Amino acid sequence: MLIFWEWRVERYEPFFRLKNLKEGTTSHGDRIQDGKNSSRYLKIGTKLSGFCGTAIIHHTRRLTQGSHSSVIKMAVTSDETDIHVTLKGTGLRGNLNKVVLAYSGGLDTSVIVPWLRENYGCDVVCFTADVGQGIQELEGLEAKAKSSGASQLVVRDLKEEFVKDFIFPCLRAGAIYERKYLLGTSMARPVIAKAMVEVAKEVGADAVSHGCTGKGNDQVRFELTFFALNPQLHVVAPWREWDIKGREDAIEYAKKHNVTVPVTKKSIYSRDRNLWHLSHEGDILEDPANEPSKNMYMMSTDPEDAPNKPEYIEVGIVAGLPVSVNGEKLSPATLLARLNEFGGRHGIGRIDMVENRLVGMKSRGVYETPGGTILFAATRELETLTLDRESMQAKDALALKYAELVYAGRWFDPLRESMDAFMEKISENTTGSVVLKLYKGSVNVAGLKSEKSLYRQDISSFETGDIYDQADAKGFIRLYGLPTRVRAMLERGL
């Protein structure tokens, strides 16, 4: 009879003697229990911290199987046999039970799976979020994850939640980071991290992990979300711990651990894609003096090659949030996808910028945000009808701080949530429709309508009206300009 057994060990002896273990035996707690007589047990070696699962007993006639984690293997050939113990699951850096890993199927996350098992002796559950990155990036992921050593892959379609609960609030707030960046990656990370916390609870994980480098913003965005939603979860960030320095090291590690990694040609650019945008970094973009290559772009046509005839579209907005395109009501994700088609066709939404990363360095990135650029133009222009001067100025001032919080990963910060309540209130009358003209990289407003409009033609007309008496302007100007007059009089000794 051959027995394979699994558990975690705090202190152990490499050899011990096991007597009178019968066929059908299973494990419970820190003892061996006979399936026929639950009172019979043997203590093994020194004190154990508890089994991770039950025994797997191979016999010519019977098989009794327990659970997971191949840690200790024992072979029994007679009633009294010396047994060799090989530890494979106790972590080199610590011990965790189960880790939920943000997984893409690329080289980095493929090697993180065996690295976690080796260094933390844990079960690894891979998690992939569909935030609109494209079906091609989701194909074959389960097989890849399991071949790397993961116990399972969990995939969640987060597109509607991403647009409705993360993108649209930023759009309503008018949040733009450093004058240009429409926060595509910044908004995606908290929705992914939020789902990871939920999955960790479902599968009973005590830790979460990501493949973000120690130089970027994303590590902060993931981890602040983890902290906010479940501060008891352990966080493992391999790039801040391991000895792997680059692609070649990762490939070598994969070979040593029999992990099949993607053999496709590596892109010269670092890209992040979701339903809102596509970012490009690296290679020639690292020198701000270099113009981006024409063949780099993927979501949008070069404006020079865009149609020579402009296209008009109408966006319907209710309380600061888009609800329809050309009169057709659409779900948030479907609406954004539709506008990506319009904007991409006309080369709209290309941004080239040098930004200040949260960690202190400057970096250059090129972003494609076709549908988002259209939506920002539509909501901003409709506000010219529905917001008074003081409200617009207050909203614009808060929008800067709102964007800064989102960029810094503070989505679940009470300040951002409080500001969101302000944005919702101040936008409640921003309802109407905007006609936009799309042409060779530009988006211009061709018409505005709102039942909540503060614009009155009978007031603004140059013709004399009953509401506005032009003669009133004289007294207003004298009072409004009084500080200016007093200062001038002082300077002249009057």
Automatic annotation (TrEMBL):
<feature type="domain" description="Arginosuccinate synthase C-terminal">
    <location>
        <begin position="269"/>
        <end position="486"/>
    </location>
</feature>
<dbReference type="InterPro" id="IPR001518">
    <property type="entry name" value="Arginosuc_synth"/>
</dbReference>
<dbReference type="InterPro" id="IPR014729">
    <property type="entry name" value="Rossmann-like_a/b/a_fold"/>
</dbReference>
<dbReference type="GO" id="GO:0005737">
    <property type="term" value="C:cytoplasm"/>
</dbReference>
<dbReference type="InterPro" id="IPR048268">
    <property type="entry name" value="Arginosuc_syn_C"/>
</dbReference>
<keyword id="KW-0436">Ligase</keyword>
<dbReference type="Pfam" id="PF00764">
    <property type="entry name" value="Arginosuc_synth"/>
</dbReference>
<dbReference type="Pfam" id="PF20979">
    <property type="entry name" value="Arginosuc_syn_C"/>
</dbReference>
<dbReference type="InterPro" id="IPR048267">
    <property type="entry name" value="Arginosuc_syn_N"/>
</dbReference>
<dbReference type="GO" id="GO:0000053">
    <property type="term" value="P:argininosuccinate metabolic process"/>
</dbReference>
<comment type="subunit">
    <text>Homotetramer.</text>
</comment>
<dbReference type="GO" id="GO:0006526">
    <property type="term" value="P:L-arginine biosynthetic process"/>
</dbReference>
<dbReference type="InterPro" id="IPR024074">
    <property type="entry name" value="AS_cat/multimer_dom_body"/>
</dbReference>
<dbReference type="GO" id="GO:0005524">
    <property type="term" value="F:ATP binding"/>
</dbReference>
<keyword id="KW-0028">Amino-acid biosynthesis</keyword>
<dbReference type="GO" id="GO:0004055">
    <property type="term" value="F:argininosuccinate synthase activity"/>
</dbReference>
<feature type="domain" description="Arginosuccinate synthase-like N-terminal">
    <location>
        <begin position="98"/>
        <end position="259"/>
    </location>
</feature>
<keyword id="KW-0055">Arginine biosynthesis</keyword>
<comment type="pathway">
    <text>Amino-acid biosynthesis; L-arginine biosynthesis; L-arginine from L-ornithine and carbamoyl phosphate: step 2/3.</text>
</comment>
<keyword id="KW-0547">Nucleotide-binding</keyword>
<dbReference type="InterPro" id="IPR023434">
    <property type="entry name" value="Arginosuc_synth_type_1_subfam"/>
</dbReference>
<dbReference type="InterPro" id="IPR018223">
    <property type="entry name" value="Arginosuc_synth_CS"/>
</dbReference>
<keyword id="KW-0067">ATP-binding</keyword>
<dbReference type="GO" id="GO:0000050">
    <property type="term" value="P:urea cycle"/>
</dbReference>
<protein>
    <recommendedName>
        <fullName>argininosuccinate synthase</fullName>
        <ecNumber>6.3.4.5</ecNumber>
    </recommendedName>
</protein>
